[in-house]
Write a structure and sequence with these properties.
- The structure is a homotetramer.
- By secondary structure, chain A is of the alpha+beta class.
- Chain A has one domain: 4-Layer Sandwich (Chorismate synthase, AroC fold).
- In chain A, 26% of the residues lie in helices and 20% in strands.
- Chain A is built from 7 helices and 16 strands.
- Chain A has a 5-stranded antiparallel beta sheet with strand order 1-2-3-7-4, covered by helices on one side. In chain A, strands 9-8-10-14-11 form a 5-stranded antiparallel beta sheet. In chain A, strands 5-6 form a two-stranded antiparallel sheet.
- In chain A, helix 1 crosses helix 3, helix 1 crosses helix 7 and helix 5 runs antiparallel to helix 7.
- At the A-B interface, strand 1, helix 2, helix 5, strand 11 and helix 6 of A face strand 1, helix 2, helix 5, strand 11 and helix 6 of B.
Chain lengths: 355, 355, 355, 355
């Protein structure tokens, strides 16, 4: 089950960086959703490499093929298998890395855990695995749209550059996917600067979900924020998660943190980030994830090889100088999947619920 | 499954704040662990209310009874059910709150989700639910000890007071459970100050796991950090999670973030926090959680009642002014359970693994 | 998870034959069900030992205590923990069996699997474990009743005596729970005869579920009949399962097996047993289980002890001469739980389903 | 999760009868297994249609492609995705059946459950779905072989013809896969006779697992026989399951049913079928499943269409006259997967188990 996420609506992803294909089975999807490959392709295109100078130059069309679960343009309730063939795989590029552990990568831990290592790129630990998440997330997004729920992620920080504005409608118009035009330009500048230095940069991605009905999430272990944390932390390179005030809440008093309620329902503020007691409040859900700087850098690093010998390493190749722009659609996918799953579970108890 | 955590080693907790009992079933526990109630009681005593001026004055002995799964002092492989009876429950204290939603609490969301609300204290969303987690965590801790693995949590921050030192051996010697004696005194002061003002304070709890073998965690969805995030975010009042550099990684370059590897194995630094690619590295696992200030405060707040009418509210009663000291054993429990579960899953594949 | 059954509506049972208590956590139960302990007790009383000469003479009141999940007589959506204390436990009766493996029992396999054995009665493998199933099943039954669905089991065969009639309304009026008055008397006679010979008898229990809506069951792995088989085969002493024509279908031609459909919906016959392709058809669900003769017999048997030495054994004590009458409420419970779970999962997809 | 089977070692299958492809993700497979496509193909070839006159004449090469999880001929611990493209799909053959419900098929129940129906062949409910099971089962078989465990299924009964002998080594040498040469010839005759009459025949498939270590299976809900029942009943057309004496046990006395134990370990007989208390005994595991006669018959049948109108129907096309020969490899696959999963779970507890 280690490659499966979700309870009622589940994804199981497969595939390695430079293997023949990556993909996903989305199981538990309700019947009756209008679905065409173009809709899924739209999200995949946002994730795909080679979109701009701030991302890797690996070139993949990432064309999705739907193998099952859709008939005459409509989901049938059967599992939806989706596959993307690799086109620009260059496993030979990695022959030199066969015996060496790249710092910051999972080379060493995979080797110790499994006793065998797929050294072609990052193998299973590659970001390429997220293709399946994004494809499945596009279907979950469709489920949520029927409820009037909308999920959008964007880059909120790159290095020391912090977005001050939340003009989410402009986020997709710049290569860093930042909702603050001025910060976006500055982010682009520092990313290119790092790249020229053979280095990379970290950042923060923020996700908003609006129109989420009150009542999603299943305490106590499947609290909505716990499920979101699980899903988002399962994305490679993510080192932190917070909801609402997050770590800032550590510095606050209860009188400043509590959101007052207002007559007629709803809240005067949303410091909780749309979740109380693990259940959605009806306010926008706001979560943030910390994305570490990519580990593949051209700067020389100290490391060791499989024989335990010291080695100096400069990782050459086609790498992302900052992951945030490409994490954006992946984070959206995981949030869509988590919410759609919680929504289905809520529907399951409603017929008995007191009115 | 919403009250179950874990894969092979699972806990299912039950019980409400002012119901007759709280407890847990720990399933999947291996046979052959020496286990007596005293061992479990030791951790429960650390969690129990009324330990000092910085915690709630509710008085509960929290005496655990083991109902199954242990025979002649040894676990048998059967599920271990543990129950703690409530003694100082005062449901009548809450009659006045029957129709009102306390800000920052889950009153409103539970009511909307389920159409019915157990208004005695926080019902199911109470911190009292964590009794079962701590009891089960004590058993998981025993499993880990056999591997030489040790888990300890402590308070790293309260409000603006930040612990600079990590003298973990002194953490249990002060009421805030802080590993920095000077900061501890200051933390205690600010908590009591907030309490006198009828207010409360947030903070940060940090957990260290040392002696963890390389290779725990099951990518990609059950990455070790994703599982830790799920488990820790499922604790009430937790608003953020980070591993290693966490959110600080957002500001870093790859050359500063990557941990160099050293001859003979191991790492020159531990900015990853002991996990790479979702698998333990053998370095100490270091995670932190943001704990919000308790929502129950005596300061007057604006809210509404079940009829949607505005109400002014001052929450009186026996409440924690800062949750960190009591979250410490709960966080340890969730980390112990997550690691023991990952350890069992690793054992399951080892007979086939190439040597 | 090995003590958990179900997907959305789950039970986790605990407890050993002669331990302090047995019980269950029912998780995922919808809020809003009116529930009092009396309702649960009614089913427990049907399962309880000492009801007649055809069952064991162990005397247990089996009084259930509800520890959580119910508030003011209504389920809240929180997990429902139910506990039954043992009163007539006599662990000392089993001291003589400490080192010997009783034939037909799980003594040997538990010992080999776990390296430790709770030799008090059958420990975890005792039929007493089913107390928790029956308590939880009573709640599931209530969920189904709201849909007009009714589940009833009865004894269809004991040894060579086969019930020819299905007067289900009289089944509870005779000690063997047989819906054929004439066969019932004969069954009682052969059971007592076997008992006097120090021996025991097998039989068949049949379960009918009527009023089941069309559409329950989730192919392909969670086919409704596969789930029923899983649940019913998990009851101790059950050696076979069949639905509809079952093993008789092996001798049939397709033209004889297929149920014709009739104008306006529905079927002209029900050889399928109410399930096609793993989904309920709307016809009554009819399943049968084979129950082996109890292994505890006074007749002398050859066996070995933990040292591998041959031993002659006569099992004395208070044992059931035939399990069928007591399996009846347990089988009902498992069928109720399976159907209620499938019903919830069906509700979860309905908002999207094409009309 | 409804298309997933297993706990630690899981399969998730996808695909419809006349869709572009069918396949599976096998997750949780240990690293280090030598695996080539030829090994998987061998089992697929045994399942594939068109092998003889007693099976359907649909012609599919069923060539498997391994998309992930294997590197340099060895499993890596990553999920193994396997896909088989459809070649002889003829969806147009089914246009005439678009609005009619074939008796004995799942047409009606799928339509009612999902509100939409993939009428190309049996869509998701087709036996073609089992391709993925067989491919994954071949990998599980390899895991078991390392332990000296061998799984073989065969046809034990067709209509009224019952195999008296168990010469399992000859089973694969006749088209019905029967281990009794004389019965095999008779089975072939009655199948062809039924086919010429435009009709079909049911039967019984028996599975033997030898060399299974003592101790597999996780009571009480994941009893080994309960898991086997779940897995085998999830195969389409299976109407019954039994282990050891099965339904014959209903007629037996305890003194006849109990297997005596013999000095030095082991049992004098194996009426239990290799499982006691849900745990393997070390004796061969023997289970049987009842396979109904195929529902697609040329004989005229009464049915209705989606408008509720009566229709007469003769199902023409390329159908199996008896499913047993093709169920054999599928049953083996489900038993291999169940045993390999139980084996991994047993390995997970062993480091703590008392010696």
């Amino acid at each position: 089950m280690s490659n499966t996420f979700g309870r009622l609506l589940t994804i199981t992803t497969f595939g390695e960086s430079h293997g023949p294909a990556v993909g996903v089975i989305l199981d538990g999807c309700p019947p009756g959703l209008e679905l065409d490959a173009a809709l899924i392709q739209r999200d995949l295109d946002r994730r795909r490499p080679g979109q701009s100078a701030v991302t890797t130059q690996r070139s993949e069309a990432d064309k999705v093929e739907v193998l099952s679960g859709v008939f005459e343009g409509v989901t049938t309730g059967a599992p939806i298998a989706m596959v993307v063939r690799s086109e620009d795989a260059r496993p030979q590029d990695y022959a030199a890395l066969k015996d060496v552990f790249r710092p910051g990568h999972a080379d060493y831990t995979y080797w110790k855990k499994y006793g065998v290592r797929d050294y072609r790129g990052s193998g299973r630990s590659s970001g390429r695995e997220t293709v399946g998440r994004v494809a499945a997330g596009a279907v979950a997004r469709r489920m949520l749209e029927r409820e009037g729920c909308r999920v959008q992620a964007f880059t909120a920080q790159v290095g020391d550059v912090i977005a001050r504005e939340r003009q989410v409608e402009i986020a997709e118009q710049n290569p860093v996917r930042c909702p603050d035009a001025k910060a976006a330009a500055e982010m682009e500048r520092v990313i290119l600067e790092a790249r020229e230095a053979g280095d990379s940069l970290g950042g923060v991605v923020e996700v908003w979900a609006t129109g989420v009905p009150v009542g999603l999430g299943d305490p106590v272990m499947d609290k909505l924020d716990a499920s979101l944390a699980w899903g988002l932390m399962s994305i490679g390179a993510v080192k932190g998660f917070e909801v609402g005030e997050g770590f800032a809440a550590a510095r606050m008093r209860g009188s400043a943190m509590n959101d007052a309620m207002v007559a007629g329902g709803g809240f005067a503020s949303n410091r909780a980030g749309g979740i109380l007691g693990g259940i959605s409040t009806g306010e926008p859900i706001v979560v943030r994830i910390a994305v570490k700087p990519p580990s593949s850098i051209a700067v020389a690093q100290k490391t060791v090889d499989t024989a335990g010998q010291e080695r100096d390493l400069e990782v050459r190749g086609r790498h992302d100088p900052c992951l945030c722009p490409r994490v954006v659609p992946v984070a959206e996918a995981m949030v869509c999947l988590t919410l759609a799953d919680a929504l289905m579970r809520q529907r399951a108890i409603e017929p008995w619920k007191p009115k």
